[in-house]
């Protein structure tokens, strides 16, 4: 028996932590439903279109092209309040969350959608020598480091130092590592070679290091082979079955005893659940600290707490793990909103619907004009796969005004073979100056 | 008597310091002239289109829209080497310059075009509490500070703190201050009012403080009056004949004893010559440390050293000071290249031509749809002036591929009344993390 909410009933307080695909989609579905009072808390003020983050790192797109103010997106959702804060602690017993700002947020429903962060598998210290790729700031840091290294190489007269500055090591042969390696090979070896007078950028080394037997392990074997061949063609040195035993400031030490001297180490070898997941009353589902929710995406023993996106570990109908891709996250966000609405609709204890993943497939781009696509029984590669990639990503960006600007940027870069966003905004010095002006004082960096 | 350079003569080494309008224009004019071997040294890797910098500060444009890689611009100038370095010292006697990188650059000709930096008229300590607007990093810091303050105000429950976070003080009623005040009033009071749930952004205060009797002192009196009326209409509090006696972390102290509580103080009240000017053998021409060159733009006693742009103080044919605008800088850059070519052409001691400034006028924009233009006997204001401003700035951007992207951004923002680049990329926390990843270690900021 269904019954509408009595108009006198207070709206249910929904606290969504994280403005990624899960959180944003959930908030959108609850928008202007007056049975809910939604707070969306994120430590940034923007939603990030993460699938294109590697393009910011490789100077193909500007940061605002792939990020948009959460307030702006949710401008017309009158029952949604966006707050920029970082949740530091959760008290599931009291149904509260505490922000770094000191604010205490109380909730009737909690949606945890804080995603993952770069993981170093317990190797403390590696973090300070490597560059991750999870946030806009990290993407800009990769760009700044690689471009600054080329500037330093152009100034340097020491051949060893030059070689080191002209080597980029990417650890991890998953989609992120492959996309970065392909884009860097395009940018550094092809686009920039007419820009320098003293160094030969075609001699630049991009090394992709993967511990297992093949790159793109989630794809078919022949797709991995194609990707490897394609990367080699672009000049990327692909090292499979190669483990990393240590990382230091200027060097990657491989399991086979070899060392690679480099001034830029990108770490794309693993992720772990955001630390908030550990503050819940549930044991982690895997070594990465992810949570295993009930089929409806609520937590065991906590029907009022939901989790979705990269922070959870679930399997689809066929028993395969649901991949950490945007469509999966958006589907989870929509599902959580649906369950909340069903909860609000009725007073019976009927079972909530289970989350069902509609697999739209996975795709990875490999430099200019090539990609691999795996969707159901469909397998694409080379130019058709690249076209499919372009189509899907532009489609996804709909709703962003950035779409047009991204398309234009790509069109120019494609035709002219040279992206125009390769400026270095902050040198480390500038950052210190900037920080100093913000009223903070830093000592001189070494 | 003219004579061509002998083919055996070594090319003359030209060292250009600064990749702004002077340096870039000079390098362009010397491009592929094999009598010259040009090194263009800049501490950034990009040329900055400074007239639009305020739009980055007010979230209307993205950083790459107004900056372009110097290497890319000078890609086809085979005799020009671009080097990213900061010149720390000059030895005019030895004809060398030393970079922070440790490199020593020797030259036959030196072109000093390092511009100006923000000046606090000897008030040490004010710098750390205020935000300047000379570099991309500074522009991004202004944007970040103002937008973050609004986020904090939305979180705050203390009315005094909220008021403070919702006050922007701009010191200096010249073109920079006026353009910033107009754009902030547009952005903060109009575009953003539907974005927040707890604060009323139409109550936001933008205060423009000017020490002299009127703003835009370089314009006619009725133009200043118009600008003041227009700013007031946008909601800006214009305080003329108002001096600043002190600046602290949270407060501007005025000469009349009044204090303004604010969490964002932009300092647009003065500039001084870049410190390199003081390393030359010439006495400064004014209190701002600028240099008075000979009519040909070389320095007294140093026919091999030239200076141009904001770092020099010169007068036009009518005895008026040449303004610090882009057309003046470009004309000086071209003039210096012309003198260098004449020098290379002949062996006589004929006098070099004197620099002649062709005054194209000055213009300042005041929020949406309004500007003032002063050019010869022509005076424009309101919408016609705004159209003229738009036309001239788009024309100037020709040569940048960014032109189209800027135009599109403006068109969208104009039609929708809401710019899309208002993302906060780095919180102070993110910056520390990013810096830590670059291998530097900073202690926790206060």
What would your notes on this structure say?
The structure is a homodimer of 446-residue chains. Chain A is of the alpha/beta class. The first copy, chain A, is built from twelve helices and 23 strands. In chain A, the strands form seven sheets. Chain A has a six-stranded mixed sheet with strand order 5-2-1-9-20-19, with helices on one face. In chain A, strands 13-12-11-17 form a four-stranded parallel sheet. The longest helix of chain A is centred in the first third of the chain and has 20 residues, at 136-155. The radius of gyration of chain A is 23 Å and the shape is elongated.
Biggest interface, CB < 8 A: A-B, 85 and 85 residues
Question: What is the terminal separation of chain A in angstroms?
Answer: 69 Å
**Sheet having the most strands of chain A:** 6 strands, mixed
- Classify the beta-strand content of chain A into a percent band: 15-25%
Return Rg of chain A in Å.
23 Å
* Sheet/helix structural class of chain A: alpha/beta
Feature tags:
homodimer, 446 residues, alpha/beta, 6-stranded mixed sheet, 4-stranded parallel sheet, disordered N terminus, disordered C terminus
